[in-house]
Each structure stands twice: as structure tokens, then as C-alpha cells.
Automatic annotation (TrEMBL):
Organism: Hydrogenophaga palleronii
Segments of this protein annotated with the region Disordered: 105-128
PROSITE patterns: HTH_CROC1
Span of the signal peptide: none
Name the record gives this protein: HTH cro/C1-type domain-containing protein
Domain of life: Bacteria
Domain HTH cro/C1-type: 11-65
Amino acid sequence: MKTLAELAQVLESARKRQKLSYKALAARVGLTPLAVRQALSGKSALRAHNLMALADELGLELMLLPKGVARSFQPGGAAADSAGLDMGSASPAYVSQLDRLLKTLATDSPAPEATPSLPPTDSPEKDR
């Protein structure tokens, strides 16, 4: 997603899919219904922590990806192609098909989570 409108459409679609009112969603994330309605219509931008709370409540994960990885989910990208999606340039169609991809991914069996182990960090001792 490159625009606030595309982000808002994905969030709004998830809200509708879960049959949540603006008031109920707002209560769950600690915002006013007006703030949620404006954010999900693309009329206002949310602070990052409010955006993460909304996404979480809607069963979505906000992720930052390297541009090369993100491009694979854009029209003509490898992830979109492998999912059989025609991600045309029209924004509503793009968002609708991205929503279908998210639904497909959500219904797939989750892979076991691998927790990478990081080597212990040695704190440098100060010279005395």
C-alpha cells in the first residue's frame, strides 16, 4: 500500500468483514467512533500506535518490508502472481484483491513459529 486511502480501504474491509460498528471498534482500541470513522474513510491519518491497535483488533498485522519484498505483492509481483491475482492499477480492485489474498493467507494452516536465537551480547567492561 502506498496511500492512506488504500490503507483505509483494507482496514474498512476488515471491519465490515467482522461486522463491527465504528463504536464497538473504537471502544476496543480506545478511540472515539468519529476518529475511527475518519481514519477508515481515509480522511485522517492515525498515530502509529493507534494504527497498530486498529490493525491488531481487526486481525491484521502491520509490517514494514524491504521494498523488494513489498514489490512482490504489488501488481505483477511474484506473490500476487503466485496467488493467481490480477492486481490491476485500479485502486479499489487492488485493495479488493489484496483483501482476498489476506483472507487466503489467514485461512491457511499457520507454519510453526521459529524463534531465532540471537547470540548473547557482551557488555563491554569499562576500564577502571
